[in-house]
Structure prediction request, 775 residues.
Amino acid sequence: MKKSVLLGALTVAGLAAGAAAAGTIDDVKARGKLNCGVTTGLVGFAAPDSNGEWKGFDVALCRAVAAAVLGDGNAVEFVPTTGKTRFTALASGEVDMLARNTTWTFSRDVDLKFEFVGVNYYDGQGFMVPKALGVSSAKELDGATVCIQTGTTTELNLADFFRANNISYEPVPIETNAEAQQQYLAGACDVYTTDASGLAATRATFEAPGDHVLLPEIISKEPLGPLVRHGDNEWADVVRWTLNALISAEEYGITSANIDEMSAGTNNPEINRILGTEGTLGEMLGLDNQWAMRAIKVGGNFGEVFAQNIGESTPIGLARGLNAQWTEGGLLYSPPFR
Amino acid sequence: MSDIGFVRTEMLPEREPPASTVGALGWARANLFSNWFNSILTLASLYAIYAILAAILPWVFSPTWNGASLNNCREILTAAGSVGDHGTSGACWGVIRERWIQLLFGFYPSELYWRPVLAFILLGVALAPVLFSDNVPSKMLIFSALYPFIFPWLLWGGTIWGPIAALAGFVLGWVVYSAVSKTMSSLMGIVLGAVAALVWWLLLSSYFTGALNSILPIGIEVVESRKFGGFMLSITIGVVAIACSLPLGIVLALGRQSDLMIVKYICVGFIEFIRGVPLITLLFVASTLLNIFMPPGTNFDIILRVLIMVTLFAAAYMAEVIRGGLAALPRGQYEGADSLGLNYWQAQRLVIMPQALKISIPGIVSTFIGVFKDTTLVSIIGLLDPLGLSNAIRADANWNGVVWELYGFIALLFFIFCFGMSRYSMYLERKLHTGHR
Prediction:
C-alpha cells in the first residue's frame, strides 16, 4: 500500500515535471536568462576566470543559445554540475540544457530520458606514457600500471580493451584529474588514460611535455554533446539548430568578422537563410529571423570557438582531427538550412 | 668569646643558581638532554625538523608572486636558478595573487564585497556579548538578537521589509503567547503563539512586504545564491549551522530525556536517523532528490537546502554531546532544583543547563569545528566552496597543474578559523572553571 502511494506520488511528480517541461523556450524567455549546466571546471571546456566570468568551449555553446533565444550572450546563469548531479539537475528542471562534455550513449539517451541534440566534440579515450618507457603502441602495455579515474566509462573501456587484446594491467585508481597528474608525474603509474582532449591538456601543463607521448590508439568513441530533456522538441530544436548554425557558419565561411557584411545579403542562398535575410527559418523555431546571426556573432563560428578555447594556438593545443568539417576529412556535417 | 669566627651574624647573600640550571641552557638541559637517550632523541628530532624545513622553505619562499601562469612561474624560477633534478622547484604563488579574492568571495559582485565583510564584522559585534560576557555591556545583546535578521539581508540583499516582516512574526507570536498564557494555560499560549507566527510568515508577510515595498522601497541589490562561493560560502554555512544547531541540539537532548513518550521517541528517532546517515547522503538528498519531489517551477534555493541539511546534521550530533553533559550531572542537582520548587524550565535554565553546557564545552566546540570543515563536502554537489573553486581554478589553462599552492592556501585559512575556535573554547573552560572537579 505504502509503496503504491509512493509510486503514485512519483508518477504525479513525473507527469507534472513533464508538463512543465513542455515549454522550456517560453520559460527561458519569461525568465530572461538561460540556465545552462556546465562542469565545475574542465580545462578548455568550462572554467571561471579570475573575474568569475565563465569561459570555454562548452560555455560558448551556452552563450550562443542564449544569444539566439534572448539576444544576449551574457544572459546565461551557469550552473556548475558534477558528474553525479548533472543528470538530476537537467531532469528536475534546475537547468534548461547541459553543455557539459557528456558522452552521448544509448542508455543516457533512451533510459535516462534525455535528448542529445548533436555533437560538439568528438573525443575518444587515449593513453599517455613517458617517452622513456619506449612504448609505441597500447598493445605493448602488457603488465603496465595504469592511472584511471574510478567510476567512469573510461574504466570500463580500459578493461574491455585489455581483455580484447589478451594483455594484463594493474589499475591505480584515482579520483580527479589533478590527482592523476601528480601520480603520473611521481611515477606511481606507467600510463595515464582518459579522454584524449584531457590528456593533451594535462600534457601541456608538464614542465617537459616532449618527454611524454600520446599513443596512437583511441580505444573508445566519446561523442560529447549538449543535451536537453526528452519530450520538449521545440526547445531541443532551438539548441540543435544553434549548434548546427555554428557548424554551418564555419562551412560557409561566416565569421564574427564578416558577419555584418554578409548579413546585408549575399548571393549564396544558404548563407542568406542562416542569417535570416531570406526565408522564415527563425519563425519556424519560434524565434526571430536574426537568431542564428546573434548566435554566431557572440563567439564566432564553430572553428573560431574551437581555435579560441582548445585549438592549436592555445596551451591545450588540440588539432581539429575528427572535429574538422566534413569537407576537410572530419565528422562535422550540419544538415542543410532549408 | 669575641673571636669565635664561625658564628655568622648575618645571612649570606643569595647566590645565583648555577648557570647550567637556569635560563635557556637550564631548560634545555632539564627537558632536552636530561640523559643520553633523551639527548639522542633530541638530536634526531632536530635533524628531522631541519630536513623538513630545508625541503619546504625554499619551495615556499619562491619569487613567483607575479607569475601570470604556471609556465610563467617556471620561467621566473629558471631565471632565479632554482632548478632541481625534476625541473624547477618552487611554489607558483601567482595563482594565489590572481585568485585569492575569488577564493574568499566566490562570484559575489566585486562592488558589493563590503556587504559580506560588514556582515562578518557585525557577526563579531553580535557575538561579543555572548562570547565575552564579562567585558561587554549586556545591552549589546539586543543587537545580537536582531543580528539573525540583519545577516541574511546583508548577504542576499533585497528589500528591507523582508527581514522586518520576519521579525514581526516573532513579535506577533510573543504578543499572542503572553496574552493567551495570562488568560488561559501557558501550553495554549505556546501553541497559539506558534500558530499566529506561522500564519503570519506563510500567508500574510508576503503581502505586508509587497505593500510596504511599494510605498517605501528601501532595499539593497539582490545577490543570488549562485554567486556565493569560496570562503564566504563556507563561513555562511558554518555560522548558520553552528548558530542554529546549538539551540536545536539542546531541545533534542532534553526531548530525548523527556518523560513524554511521543516527544522522546520523535527525538530519539531523529537523532539516530541523522547520525546513521553520512552528511554527503543528506547533501545529495538536498541537491538532487528534493528537486525531483518538489513541484516543478518551485525555486527552493540550493544554499538554503544545504543550510537546512547541515544544520539538522550538526544538531543531531550536538544533541548527543549535550546529553553527555546532562548525564554527567549528579542526580542531586536535579533533585536539589526540584526541592527548591523550581518548575521544569526554571530548573533547566537556572541549574541544569549552565552546568551541563559547561561540561560539554570541549565536545560542543569539536562539533562546531567538525561542521565547519564538513562544509567543504558541498563541492561534491557542485557548489563552489574553496575546494570546488580550486578545481575550477585548475581548469583555467594558465593554472592547470597547480595543486599544492591552492590546497596550502585553503588549509591555512581553515586552520586559522578552526584554531581560533579551539583557543576560544579553552579560554571559556578556564573562565568557567569554578569547582566541580
